[in-house]
Design goal:
alpha+beta; Cytochrome Bc1 Complex, Chain A, domain 1; six-stranded mixed beta sheet; globular
């Protein structure tokens, strides 16, 4: 159930006795902007290690231990046109402890989020410098993993919006110019302006949860308006880029535009089409490109419906590039033409349903589902609805969805000796 705390601040509670823990997340949602991605990511590093009351990382961690080993972390993510900063905490259900851990957990969250270690209008300079260096080193190291490099490269070729073309946590270049003082402004804007969605999953009373959510004292703010999804026009030309490196396995990545009404019939048809095409070990890509033809070390597809984007990833020998690309196209054409058996089609849907049922044993998945529902309230999303809509997808709907998948970008990391 989602309730309003104040303008732009909502609480969603999923009451359940399934778990021995309670999961709390405070999600700050803002329009995705290239110039703020890096700053918001760096901010999470500072907020999750110290505060005014717990100025050192040791004291911060010690307080979590006092809360029966509670876990706490902050991360960033992108959902369509939205950049999300999520502070998450997991605590032992108070029924299994001799203290009211829920009250203590919210006290800790208020301290961590509302009382960061800021003095004289600046974060601690030494801590800031260390975390900025660490984050830059991490971002620069991403290209060392060639699969990650290829995935990011094909997205850079595909997306017209620069904020969509970079990782959700930004780039090292995006950290240039940030200072311990400028990051305070980023923090203040997040606390004051972001839409806030608080999610609680566990054995929690709604009225108790409402009071705790209100204890943050967040001021009213406008909710984000307009569609949260990112979409861009389909182009008639395919962007192609090839780079060479001395690697043992070449990487072939393809980016497709996909269509779908978020959480509507077309949405689920596109998800099933992607799964049949390359999203599982039962998929055509896995069966035919990897197993039957033995032309790929791996071959898979995954869809991001909030960005109307599907990516195919394949690890191959460089000499097979053209043949593998042809085979990938042939597998999508097979989905479009309906060249798959009813049993295969049902097995794909059964696998998706079973995966989602298994995910219901995860508090994190349930919390993510509640957040998606909060961000898109018109979708009326819940676990059973998802299962029902997946089961309802027909062959014809899958064929139609696959026919609308349009190749837009190809990136080839050529590992052939040169």
């Amino acid at each position: 159930m989602r309730v309003k705390i104040t303008d732009g601040v909502h609480l969603s509670v999923v009451p359940t006795t399934q778990f021995k823990t309670t999961r709390i997340s405070v999600n700050f949602l803002a329009p995705l902007q290239l110039e703020t991605i890096g700053a918001r990511t760096l901010l999470t590093s500072l907020l999750e290690m110290s505060s005014t009351k717990y100025p050192t990382q040791a004291e911060f961690s010690a307080e979590l231990e006092n809360l029966y080993g509670a876990s706490f972390g902050i991360n960033v993510a992108r959902a369509g046109r939205v950049h999300r900063v999520s502070a998450g905490m997991q605590i032992l259900d108070s029924a299994y402890a001799d203290v009211n851990l829920l009250d203590d957990a919210f006290a800790f969250l208020r301290e961590a989020l509302l009382n960061p270690r800021i003095e004289g209008g600046s974060f601690d300079v030494a801590t800031f410098a260390r975390e900025k260096t660490n984050l830059a080193m991490y971002l620069n190291s991403l290209s060392d993993d060639r699969a990650t490099k290829a995935g990011l490269a094909v997205q850079a070729s595909y997306f017209a919006d620069p904020a969509q073309a970079v990782p959700s946590f930004g780039t090292a270049d995006g950290l240039d110019g940030l200072t311990a003082k400028s990051l305070v402004a980023t923090y203040q804007e997040m606390i004051k302006d972001d839409q806030i969605e608080i999610i609680m999953v566990g054995n929690v009373d709604l009225e108790k949860a409402r009071a705790l959510a209100a204890s943050f004292g967040f001021a009213p703010r406008p909710s984000m308006q307009g569609t949260l999804e990112y979409d861009q026009p389909v182009l008639q030309t395919i962007a192609r880029k090839t780079e060479k490196e001395q690697v043992t396995q070449s990487k072939l990545n393809l980016a497709y535009h996909i269509e779908g009404d978020h959480f509507g019939p077309q949405y689920y048809a596109a998800l099933v089409a992607c799964e049949l095409f390359g999203g599982s070990p039962l998929s055509l890509l896995f069966r035919n490109v990897r197993e039957k033809e033995s032309l790929a070390y791996y071959a898979s597809a995954n869809a991001n419906m909030m960005r109307h984007f599907m990516m195919v990833q394949a690890g191959i020998d460089a000499v097979n590039e053209s043949r593998v690309e042809e085979l990938i196209a042939a597998q999508l054409a097979a989905v479009v033409s309906g060249d798959f058996t009813d049993d295969h089609f049902q097995a794909i849907k059964d696998g998706m349903v079973n995966d989602r049922k298994a995910s219901l044993d995860s508090q994190g998945f349930i919390a993510d589902l509640a957040l998606s529902s909060a961000m898109l309230p018109d979708a009326k999303l819940d676990a059973q609805t998802e299962l029902t809509r997946i089961n309802a997808v027909t062959r014809e709907q899958v064929q139609a969805a696959a026919a609308k998948m349009k190749l837009q970008a190809v990136y080839f990391l050529n590992g052939e000796a040169h």
